[in-house]
Amino acid sequence: MKRLIPGFLILIFWAGCSSDNTPKGIIRKDDMTNLITDLQLVDGYIAGLPQDSANKVGPQLYLSAFKKYNTDSTRFTRSLKYYSLQPKTLSEVYASVKTKLDTLEKVEERRLNAETLKAEKEITKAEKRRQDSIKKANGENKADSILKKRITRPLEIS
């Protein structure tokens, strides 16, 4: 009995100090952060589409985001209401979302810059080849045969 009481107290203390104390049916904080990030990406993608395409593709994209986190829009709404009652936690979630989106934006900018640089190099190479072929067609690359044969001699003073 003496061993049971300290063990029970340790178990209660450990359960009470759990970092993930969200109620059942509420999306965990980390998953909520990732889900909101994905939903923001879907929103951004849909915003760039024509209205009829957005209406057709949008619901499927949202469903795939919910499916990725094993949830649905009802559970997401319930979780968002739960977190809105805890402003500090919701601020942390949105700060994490912003950080993730900023990181993704920087990665995409680097990728686009690398692609642009590569395309510019290809254009420069193509332009150089074009200029070389124009010179070749005009005979500008041919050396003057008379200049090749000319031998320069030092002047002799008598």
Describe what this molecule looks like in 3D.
The chain has 158 residues and is mostly helical. The chain has a domain at 22-112. The chain is 75% helix and 0% strand. It has six helices and no strands. Helix 2 (29-47) runs antiparallel to helix 3 (51-68). It is elongated.
- Tell me the major beta sheet: none
Order of helices and strands: HHHHHH
Strand content: under 5%
What is the radius of gyration computed over CA atoms, rounded to a whole number of angstroms? 34 Å
Please state the structural category: mainly alpha
- What proportion of the residues is helical, as a percent range? over 70%
- Gap between N and C termini: 130 Å
Unreliable spans: none
**Silhouette:** elongated
Global mean pLDDT: 81
Brief synopsis:
This protein has 158 residues and is an all-alpha fold.
Main features:
158 residues, mainly alpha, 0% strand, elongated
Secondary structure: elements and pairs:
Elements: H1 4-16, H2 29-47, H3 51-68, H4 73-84, H5 87-138, H6 145-149
Helix pairs in contact: 2-3, 2-5
